[in-house]
Write a structure and sequence with these properties.
heterodimer, A: about 350 residues, alpha+beta, 6-stranded mixed β-sheet, 5-stranded antiparallel β-sheet, B: about 300 residues, mainly alpha, two-stranded antiparallel ribbon
C-alpha cells in the first residue's frame, strides 16, 4: 500500500491541453473518486497514474517513488477497465493468474492466490470458464479478481460499473466498497456518475475541463460546493440556480427575475445592486402557506417515498423535493419558502461561491 | 415460425396436398442458387472426374477404368511435379505469410503517411498475374533486367546469368514473383484482424507485466490464430493450383524443373492433348488439397477452440 501524490500534473495532446496542473494528495489506504462529465480529463489522469499515458508536465509519485518514467508493470498498480479487458482465450483462473504467471511464480502459489481471490469474490465455481461464458457482473468480478491477485500498492478503476445494468451497478458498488474496507488498498476510482462518487468515496475530486474544481468529503462537497459547477454536478435532483440582484434595505434580499424577493443570510460581502446566482437544493424548498415565493405547479412526480414538483418560478422551472405524498396538482399555485442559511450564493461571472 | 407453420398444417383440410406443397416450397425459393451451383460446380466436377476414367484420342474416347491412375504411379515427371508443387507452395507460403504478418504489424502502428503506404503496399494484388509474371521474367533477364547484375555484385552469383535458365535455381524466379504478389493478401487480412484487438487488452497485459514479445505471443497471436488458419488454408490451395506465374515465366522448364502439378495438368491437357490423363492428375491434386484442408481444420479445432 502506498500514497499517491500528484504535483502540478499536466497533459497535452498536440497543442490541446487536457489537464491544467492537477495537484492531489491521496493518502495511504484512501478511496478517492475522480468525477466529472465526459471529457473533463479524469480518465486521462487515471491512465497517467497507471503509466498508460505519458506525463507532459509535473510529477506523479506512488509512495515516495517518482514514477513519471516508470513502465506500467513496474509501478505495482492494478487497473480495472470499463470493458474489463479480460483475455478472451484464457479461462477465469488464467486471467486472474496471468500477472503471477508472467512473474514466473510457482504454480502452487498462483493457484492458492487465485483460489483465495476467487473465493472472496464468489468465483470458485467459475474458474474453468471462459469470459464469454460469464455474465456481465461475473466478468466484472473476474476483472476485480485479476487486480486483487496481484496485491498491488494501488487499485485503479476506470468506470468499472458503466457496462452493468442499474440494479447490478448498485450491488457491485457496495461490493467494491466492502472489498476496500477489507483490503484497505489505496484506490483511485473514475466515474461520471455522481451517485457512485457520493456513495463510495472517502474523498471526491470533481473535475471539469481539465481543472480540479474541488476536493473534499462527499458531504462537504454537497453542503459547501466551491462553485456553481460543483453545486450543479453533485446532488440528484440537481440544484436550482436562480439569477438575482441584491437589494439592501432593512434585510438583505435577493430580487429574482420576476421581482419576487428571497431573504438572504446576513454578514456576506454583498453590495446593493450586485448580480448573483442563488442556488437552492430541491429539498431545501418547503411548501409553506406563508412563504415569500409564489409559483404555479407544472409537473408533479410522485415517487412514493417522496414527491417532486416542478414549479414555474422567476420565469424558469424550479424543482422542489418534499418527503411523503402531496395532494397538490399541476396548475395549482403554491407558496414556497427557503431558509436563508440553506441558500448557496455564487458570483455570476466566475461561478465561485460567495461566503 | 414453427408455431405458424404447425397452425397452417392443422388448419389445412386436404392435408396431404398441403403438406407436399409446404415441403416443396422452400426448395423453389432455393432453386436459382441450387441450379447455378449444379451447373457451374457440380456438373463440370463430375464430367472432369468421369474424364479421368477415359482415354481420349483424336476422334474417340474409350473407358479404361483405373488405367490412368495406374499410369500415374509410374510417371516420373508427375513425381517431380509433385515435389516441385510442394516446394513451390511451402516456400511461397512461408515468405508470403511472415512478410505479410510483419507488414501488417508495421501498418498497425501509426506513422506519418500511413494511408499512402497502405495503398501502395496493396498494389501488387491489383496487378494481373500475367503482367507481373512477364515483368518479373524481364527483371531476371540479364540483358534487360537489373537483378542478375545486383546478385552478381552482392556475390550471390558467380556470373550475372538468368536464374530462370538454370534448373537448380529456376523455381526461385516464380517463387519470388509469387511472394511479391501474395504478401498484400496476408497483410490485408492480418491487419484487419489486428485492428479488431481491443487496445485495453494490450494495456491490461502491459500492467500485468507482459513484455512486448509476451504481449505478442499471449494476446496478439491467440487473436490472430483463427484468421491465420483460414488464410493459410485458402492461400495454400490457391498457391498449389496457381499456374499463371510459372507458365508465363518458365513454362515449367528448364527441363521440367519448375513444372508443378497444375502446369503439368495444363501441358497434358492442351499441349499433349491427353484430356483423360490431365483429368486424372487434377483429381489427384483435388484429393490431396481436400485432405490438407481437412487436416488443417482439425488442427484449428484443437488449437483455437477458445476464441
Amino acid at each position: 500500500m502506498a500514497s499517491v501524490t500528484l504535483q502540478h500534473v499536466e497533459k497535452d495532446y498536440g497543442a490541446l491541453r487536457i489537464l491544467h496542473g492537477v495537484d492531489l494528495e491521496i493518502a495511504d489506504g484512501e478511496f478517492v473518486v475522480l468525477v466529472g462529465p465526459s471529457g473533463c480529463g479524469k480518465s486521462t489522469l487515471l491512465r497517467m497514474i497507471a503509466g498508460l499515458e505519458e506525463v507532459t508536465g509535473g510529477e506523479i509519485r506512488i509512495g515516495e517513488r517518482l514514477v513519471n518514467d516508470v513502465a506500467p508493470k513496474d509501478r505495482d498498480i492494478a487497473m480495472v477497465f470499463q470493458s474489463y479487458a479480460l483475455y478472451p482465450h484464457m479461462d477465469v483462473s488464467s486471467n486472474m493468474g496471468f500477472s503471477l504467471m508472467l512473474k514466473k511464480a510457482e504454480k502452487t502459489a498462483i493457484d492458492s492466490r487465485v483460489g483465495a481471490a476467487a473465493k472472496r469474490l464468489g468465483l470458485d465455481s467459475f474458474l474453468g470458464r471462459l469470459p464469454r461464458q460469464l455474465s456481465g457482473g461475473q466478468r466484472q468480478r473476474v476483472a476485480m479478481g485479476r487486480a486483487i491477485v496481484r496485491d498491488p500498492k494501488v487499485f485503479l478503476f476506470d468506470e468499472p460499473l458503466s457496462n452493468l445494468d442499474a440494479k447490478l451497478r448498485v450491488h457491485m458498488r457496495a461490493e467494491i466498497k466492502a472489498l476496500h474496507q477489507q483490503l484497505k488498498t489505496t484506490s483511485v476510482y473514475v466515474t461520471h456518475d455522481q451517485v457512485e462518487a457520493m456513495t463510495m468515496a472517502d474523498r471526491i475530486v470533481v473535475m471539469h475541463d481539465g481543472y480540479v474544481q474541488q476536493v473534499g468529503h462527499p458531504l462537504e462537497l454537497y453542503d459547501r460546493p466551491a462553485n456553481s459547477f460543483v453545486a450543479g454536478f453533485i446532488g440528484s435532483p440537481g440544484m436550482n440556480f436562480l439569477p438575482a440582484k441584491v437589494a439592501k434595505g432593512g434585510n438583505v434580499d435577493a430580487v429574482l427575475a420576476d421581482g419576487q424577493k428571497l431573504r438572504l443570510p446576513d454578514g456576506l460581502p454583498l453590495k446593493d445592486g450586485d448580480a448573483l446566482t442563488v442556488g437552492l437544493r430541491p429539498e431545501h424548498i418547503r411548501l409553506a402557506d406563508d412563504g415569500p415565493l409564489k409559483g404555479e405547479v407544472e409537473v408533479v412526480e410522485p415517487l412514493g417515498l417522496s414527491t417532486q414538483f416542478y414549479v414555474r418560478l422567476a420565469n424558469q422551472q424550479v424543482c422542489v423535493f418534499v418527503m411523503g405524498r402531496s395532494n397538490v396538482r399541476p396548475g395549482d399555485t403554491v407558496r414556497l419558502a427557503a431558509d436563508p442559511e440553506a441558500l448557496h450564493l455564487f458570483d455570476p461571472p466566475s461561478g465561485n461561491r460567495i461566503s | 415460425m414453427t408455431y405458424a407453420v404447425s397452425e397452417i398444417r392443422s388448419a389445412a383440410r386436404p392435408r396431404k396436398k398441403r403438406l407436399s406443397k409446404a415441403a416443396i416450397e422452400p426448395w423453389l425459393y432455393l432453386s436459382p442458387a441450387i441450379v447455378l451451383l449444379v451447373v457451374v460446380l457440380l456438373v463440370p466436377l463430375i464430367i472432369g472426374i468421369s474424364y479421368s476414367f477415359r482415354k481420349f484420342s483424336a476422334f474417340k474416347s474409350e473407358y479404361v477404368g483405373l488405367g490412368q491412375y495406374q499410369a500415374m504411379l509410374s510417371d516420373a515427371v508427375l513425381g517431380q511435379a509433385l515435389i516441385n508443387t510442394l516446394w513451390w507452395t511451402v516456400a511461397s507460403l512461408f515468405f508470403q505469410f511472415f512478410l505479410g504478418l510483419g507488414l501488417a504489424l508495421l501498418l498497425d502502428k501509426p506513422f506519418y503517411g500511413r494511408r499512402i503506404v497502405q495503398a501502395v503496399v496493396f498494389l501488387p494484388w491489383a496487378v494481373p498475374s500475367f503482367l507481373s509474371g512477364l515483368t518479373w521474367a524481364w527483371l531476371f533477364n540479364p540483358i534487360i533486367g537489373p537483378l542478375p547484375h545486383w546478385l552478381f555484385a552482392l556475390g550471390l552469383k558467380a556470373e550475372p546469368t538468368n536464374v530462370l535458365s538454370d534448373p537448380a535455381t529456376a523455381m526461385w524466379g516464380p517463387i519470388v514473383a509469387n511472394i511479391w504478389f501474395g504478401i498484400p493478401f496476408f497483410a490485408i487480412t492480418l491487419l484487419a484482424a489486428l485492428k479488431s484487438i481491443p487496445t485495453e487488452l494490450h494495456e491490461a497485459a502491459a500492467i500485468d507485466g507482459a513484455s512486448p514479445w509476451q504481449r505478442f505471443t499471449k494476446v496478439t497471436l491467440p487473436f490472430l490464430a483463427p484468421t491465420i488458419v483460414i488464410t493459410v488454408m485458402l492461400r495454400t490451395i490457391w498457391i498449389a493450383t496457381f499456374a499463371d506465374l510459372i507458365f508465363v515465366m518458365t513454362e515449367g522448364g528448364p527441363a521440367g524443373s519448375t513444372s508443378t502439378v497444375p502446369v503439368y495438368i495444363y501441358v497434358s491437357a492442351f499441349k499433349s492433348l491427353d484430356k483423360g490423363y490431365a483429368s486424372a492428375v487434377a483429381v489427384l491434386l483435388l484429393v490431396l488439397l481436400i485432405a490438407y484442408a481437412i487436416g488443417l481444420i482439425a488442427i484449428r479445432r484443437t488449437l483455437v477452440r477458445h476464441v
